[in-house]
Design goal:
With 270 residues, the protein is mainly alpha-helical. The protein has 2 domains: 120 residues; 150 residues, no CATH class. The longest helix is centred in the middle third of the chain and has 41 residues. The protein is globular and about 75 Å long.
């Protein structure tokens, strides 16, 4: 069972990595990122298929399928549909959002149904979820903090250039295009990690019969900060807003994230 648990975790991490590359393609229309994301997604699909086959074989004598197999099959169907859409219909945004839903279903299934199906103790399940949540949220905080520094640098440099206030220090700054490009990379890494960490946190609360904590102030502000970053992504990828406006939206989203961190003392979650 321990070996199977490592494989389940491996599927989730590979799926998360695939989503990072798909998000990079979503932001910058990168063919290389799309190829890598698709390759990882195909590998995830192969592993899911193998698990489904073994599960179906082991449950042939049972009168009905367990909820674990049911939702695993549902996630597998979403992955299959996304691969078909990517190959034959080329609706790129649909592929990304379908896989976000599939990842959430897969995570929730592995760490709730699996706890019952494999007789894991509840404390062990929530502990594993906590480790994953902490690792994801710390990486997200690091990436988004770097992005906030770049956004502040962009606003400062844009103001100095617009007012034609030159100095020897200004010449040491990278160009506005370079700053914007680096900020995009921090978003490409940070936002999916933040979304996945919050999905894992929600899963942990549900698995631990603490769903009421989803209304906790810290949880709500965390989801509000994620929503603000989603607004940034939409303005960047769809509306093609100017860099100055995007930097302001980014700083607002980061301010929401800081508010979420500062509300730890008011929260019952941590």
């Amino acid at each position: 069972m321990g070996y199977a648990n490592w494989i389940y975790d491996g599927i989730l991490y590979l799926y998360a990595l695939s989503l990072l590359f798909y998000f990079s393609d979503f932001m910058n229309a990168s063919r290389r990122a799309k190829r890598i994301g698709t390759g990882l997604l195909i590998f995830v699909w192969v592993l899911q298929s193998a698990f489904l086959i073994t599960r179906f074989i082991s449950h042939l004598e049972l009168p009905q399928l367990t909820s674990f197999v049911y939702w695993l099959a549902f996630s597998w169907l979403l992955v299959t549909a996304s691969l078909v859409i990517s190959r034959f219909f080329h609706i790129e945004y649909m592929v990304f959002f379908v896989n976000v839903i599939s990842f959430a279903v897969l995570a929730l299934n592995f760490y709730t149904s699996s706890a019952q199906d494999r007789n894991y103790a509840l404390w062990q399940t929530t502990r594993e979820l906590l480790y994953i949540h902490i690792s994801l949220i710390l990486c997200a905080y690091a990436a988004l903090t770097i992005g906030a520094l770049l956004a502040a640098m962009y606003l400062f440099l844009h103001h100095r250039l617009k007012s034609k206030r030159w100095s020897k220090y200004i010449r040491r700054y990278p160009s506005l295009d370079a700053i914007e490009r680096y900020a995009d990379r921090s978003v490409i890494i940070g936002v999916p990690l933040l979304a996945m960490s919050l999905a894992v946190a929600a899963t942990m609360l549900i698995a631990g019969d603490k769903a009421m904590l989803l209304l906790d102030w810290k949880v709500l502000t965390s989801f509000a900060s994620l929503l603000a970053y989603i607004v940034y992504v939409y303005q960047r990828a769809v509306n093609n807003r100017p860099g100055q406006q995007l930097a302001k939206v980014y700083m607002f989203a980061f301010g929401m994230l800081i508010l979420s961190v500062l509300t730890n003392s008011l929260s019952s979650f941590h």
